[in-house]
Amino acid sequence: MKVIDLGATNSVLNRYMAQLRDVDYQRNRTLFRGNLRRIGHVMAYELSRTLCYSDKKITTPLGEKLVPTPDDHIVVGTVLRAGLAFHEGFLDVFDEADSAFVAAYREEGRREDLKIRLEYIATPRLDGCTFLLVDPMLATGGSLELAYKAFLAGGTPGRLHVCAVIAAQEGVDHLCRVFPSDDVTLWCAAIDPALNEAAYIVPGLGDAGDLSFGPKRSFAKD
C-alpha cells in the first residue's frame, strides 16, 4: 500500500488541521465540520492527479476545445456518522460521483476488549470503479477494514483509495498488512504516533463524530 502524508509538506492544509485539533476552535461545530470539508477538498484535489484522463471535445459559445477530464467512475464511501462532513468535501470536488454508506462502530472500552459492530449498508455497484473510502480517524484500522469488506457486497472496485484526516501509526501498519498491493493508496493529512488505552489517537483531536454533531448516547446490545 502506498502511504501519502499530505501534512508532511507545508500548505494551507496545515492551517485547517491546526484549527481542527484546537480545543478552542472545536467549540464551534460548524467550523469543525467546515474544516473537515475543506480538508476533503484538498485531499480530493491531490487524489485527482492520479486518475485516468482522456481528451473530451467541449463546445463553447465560440468554438470547440479538447479538454482532458477524468474517465474514472468514482464512488465515495464513508462510515456513519463521523465521516459525513469529510464525505461532502469529496463530493464537492467529484460532483458526478456516486455515494456509499455503512454504519460501523466500535463499542467503548479498553483496546484489548474492543468489538466492532456493523449495522447498515447502502451502496451502488462497485465493480471496476475507483472507490474512495473516506473516514476522518484511522485508529486501529479494524473498523475501516470491516467497513471495506462490507462494501464488497456491492462488487470489487478497480482501484481503492483510503482517505483519512488523522491516522495513527498502528492503523497505518494494520492497513499495510491488509492491503499489501501498490494498487491501494492511503491518503492522510497527518500521522500521529500513538493510541491510548481506549484506542483514541494521541494527540489526535478527540471524537470527530461528537465534535461534528454533538455527544451521543450509547445503547448496549446483547
Descriptive report:
By secondary structure, the chain is an alpha/beta fold. It has six helices and twelve strands. The strands form three sheets. Strands 1, 4, 5, 6, 7, 8, 9 and 10 form an eight-stranded mixed sheet that branches. The chain has a two-stranded antiparallel ribbon with strand order 2-3. The longest helix is centred in the first third of the chain and has 20 residues. The radius of gyration is 18 Å and the shape is globular. The model has no long low-confidence stretch (mean pLDDT 92).
Topology summary:
Elements: E1 2-5, H1 13-21, H2 29-48, E2 53-60, E3 63-70, E4 74-79, H3 84-93, E5 98-106, E6 116-122, E7 130-134, E8 137-138, H4 142-151, E9 159-168, H5 169-178, E10 184-192, E11 194-195, E12 201-202, H6 208-213
Parallel strand pairs: 1-10, 4-5, 4-7, 7-9, 8-9, 9-10
Antiparallel strand pairs: 2-3, 5-6, 11-12
Give a quick set of tags describing it.
single chain; globular; eight-stranded mixed β-sheet; two-stranded antiparallel sheet; 222 residues; 6 helices; alpha/beta
